[in-house]
Amino acid sequence: MSNESLANLLKEERRFAPPADLAAHANVTAEAYERAKADRLGFWAEQARRLTWATEPTETLDWSNPPFAKWFADGKLNVAYNCVDRHVEAGHGDRVAIHFEGEPGDSRAITYAELKDEVSKAANALTELGVQKGDRVAIYMPMIPETAVAMLACARIGAAHSVVFGGFSADALATRIQDADAKVVITSDGGYRRGKPSALKPAVDDAIAKGAGVEHVLVVRRTGQEDISWTEGRDVWWHELVDGQSAEHTPEAFDAEHPLFILYTSGTTGKPKGILHTSGGYLTQAAYTHHAVFDLKPETDVYWCTADVGWVTGHSYIVYGPLANGATQVMYEGTPDTPHQGRFWEIVQKYGVTILYTAPTAIRTFMKWGDDIPAKFDLSSLRVLGSVGEPINPEAWVWYRKNIGGDRTPVVDTWWQTETGAMMISPLPGVTEAKPGSAQRPLPGISATVVDDEANEVPNGGGGYLVLTEPWPSMLRTIWGDDQRFIDTYWSRFEGKYFAGDGAKKDEDGDIWLLGRVDDVMLVSGHNISTTEVESALVSHPSVAEAAVVGAADETTGQAIVAFVILRGSAAESEDLVGELRNHVGATLGPIAKPKRILPVAELPKTRSGKIMRRLLRDVAENRQLGDVTTLTDSSVMDLIQSKLPAAPSED
Ligand code: WT7
User: Fold this and answer.
1) Which residue's alpha carbon is nearest to atom 10 within ligand 1?
2) Running DSSP on this structure, what letter comes out for residue 459?
3) Which of 40, 83, 426, 592 counts the most CB atoms within 10 A of its CB?
4) C-beta of residue 125 within 8 angstroms of C-beta of residue 245
5) CA atoms of 321 and 474, how far apart (whole Å)
6) Whole-angstrom distance, CA of residue 294 vs CA of residue 277
């Protein structure tokens, strides 16, 4: 990758200092970086002491057989005890753990004492179904409290859960059940989606019909659909089995390296990878980062992460991190526009949410809907805003801070992956002078850098590949059932370093900017240009709400830049505007980055977790048959985009 073109294309001069009152009382101060640098393992051993161990670990890291790490290996703990019981024992049983907000408007507050009873009953129920320590349980659920209860119940009895996002198909569920060899599936009759009940149980029946052998299906009643099919002996209602159980359950202590969960990520090629996370190290880093990056004060904060529990964000920052820290949080079942486009802001106002964690795709959607919508609600309770999932365009960052954060709150752009288990690179809200669009620095105790093709660390101002240079507590331990693939995928590109698969650059101050997946980097006339930077340049134009950029094969330049843009509400599509946008990119990034074609579209193809599927746009731009569209939220989007395409590419 040629460094000079990746580096310093995008100029961002805006800076935002931490608010003085937040900095004065911050959970973590600048000193943490120094302490972790002086003694990284000592620093993590200290963070592990935030947890309650049945047997305190004396070892921190065993890296004698890289890349297979063991953290806190001689320690024993129960993860569910740490997330629930210990808060009750500390006198916080009456504190609300979860404010549940259903899509139809129903709500429920669950205290830590109630959560302890629910988790204990569910643990007893799973035991009655024959689930034992070391087994796997699949969880295929909507966003309801029972999902968190089910996960914690598995953790409590030492069974690894494999949560499969409720929007996935029966096929996807079947392959995941089979790969993990799950004994039980926990599901519900359905959930509410865009104002209607949406069934889940039929997909489980289908998955089993396709050969996914499980002994039992445990079914939560959520929507009360009547025509639900039932297999006697195999299917069991949650309310019939769980509700009658004893609320007493003694948590057993498991080894720190006992499997906690498997979560599948679908790469661009091959079958989904079952990412394995274990107990002590994972919980240590999930809890520490949640405490440090959100500055969580469990007595007073109301925290809300809008992700689905089916993604790693929901695992680490709805279930394990916040609950280990004794937080009070909001859990919302539905979509941001049901029944109206102000729903999120209504929820922030209703519960007095102080910390909000969401994704760039949602932020860009809110920008598109207009500033007047959040302006109708009282958002003054907010004090920290977070972003995760994709690079956040500087313009979206500034919009988020201004329109949601009242120009007052820090915005923390958190870089991490399913594989890293917890946050790795992020500003600290009481410490970092923020730069819109940059995740900035590795967190205390984390070692990340940017290297070139030959694995040499690039100097400030250089660009290349993001790597992690030291093991970290919440790192994946392997790919379930496939150690070789674990080595090949993450540890073979650069000797001794974890290859994240993301392009990145370091700016003049050494701050890290994520540039998207390396597969998405374009090569134009011998220059590496990041799709992220061209997209951010487009989004910085007042007429553009969202942009997706791909490199399409081109006879003269190798690849040519093709941009798909969604215009803001009032902007009219015209040739003049397209010309203006090209020039705007040219002026922002330099002439080399001017898109050859810019196509205004109504929607962009996205995965169910909200990431833009550039692969499909590349197919369109290169006039190819579309590749696999099964992970798209809405496949009709591609028909619309294809119908927009002029027969022959227009030259300028
Ligand atoms: C990939 C991991 C982390 C939980 C949700 C996604 C991209 C994630 C950022 C960020 C730039 C980001 C990367 C990464 N990504 N956060 N703050 N800035 N890129 O988990 O599905 O495993 O995806 O998401 O490309 O590798 P995931």
Assistant:
1) 415
2) P
3) 83
4) yes
5) 12
6) 23
SS3 call for 107: strand
Q: pLDDT tens digit string along 424-483?
A: 999 999 999 999 999 999 999 999 999 999 999 999 999 999 999 999 999 999 999 999
Considering only CA atoms, which residue is closest to atom 23 of ligand 1?
417
List pLDDT tens digits, range 481-495: 999 999 999 999 999
Protein residue with its CA nearest to atom 2 in ligand 1: 417
Residue 604 Cα, ligand 1 centroid: separation in angstroms? Answer: 18
Query: Rounded distance, CA 365 to CA 357, Å?
Result: 15
Decide if 404 contacts 379 (C-beta within 8 A). Answer: yes
Q: How far is the CA of 516 from the centre of ligand 1 (A)?
A: 9
Separation of CA 610 and ligand 1 centre (Å): 11
Pocket test for ligand 1, best of 315, 318, 514, 631 (most atoms within 8 A of CB): 514
**Per DSSP, which regions of 51-105 are E strands?**
61-65, 68-71, 76-77, 96-101
Cα–Cα dist 530/462, whole Å: 13
Domains defined along the chain, listed by start? 525-644 (3.30.300.30)
- pLDDT at residue 486, rounded to an integer: 97
- Confirm if 449 and 455 have CB atoms less than 8 A apart: no
pLDDT in tens, 66-76: 999 999 999 99
**Cβ–Cβ < 8 Å for 54, 76:** yes
Known binding positions for ATP: 389-391, 413-418, 502, 517
pLDDT of res. 569: 74
pLDDT tens, position by position, 237-247: 999 999 999 99
